Amino acid sequence: MSVLKHRINEDMKAALRARESPRLGAIRLLMAAVKQREVDERKELSDDEVVSVIDKMLKQRRDSIFQYQAAGRQDLVEAEQFEISVLQAYMPESLSGDEVRETVVAAVRECGASGPQDMGRVMALLKPRLAGRADMALVSGLVKKVLSSA
Length: 150
Fold this sequence. Notes:
The chain is mainly alpha-helical. It has 7 helices and no strands. α1 (3-18) runs antiparallel to α2 (21-41).
């Protein structure tokens, strides 16, 4: 079992013992998503793959918050924000804006990208390096900006 999955499992047991229903529910959703992906791929997930599952769940929660705010459902917004706080605890430490920019510039230099047509190559290089540590939508915008000025 991966270290991250073990930690999630232990936190689930602790939430169960402490009778923290909302936290337990969020952790169970995470475990269900991890197990579903393991069944789909027929293998045990590594820590990086578990992080990608968590990242996907965080994106879903953020999208839901946007929809709930538009509908005026503050109760549901708060529930989603709580789940985000629980899920965020399992993500690796986020990089600062300067660190992300340095990584993007290094990747552009490394693959010899010369313009916007090379964006796919740069993003392919950055995705494993920054997964879970930076918002990939923001990284994509930064890559576009760096490549258009190159």
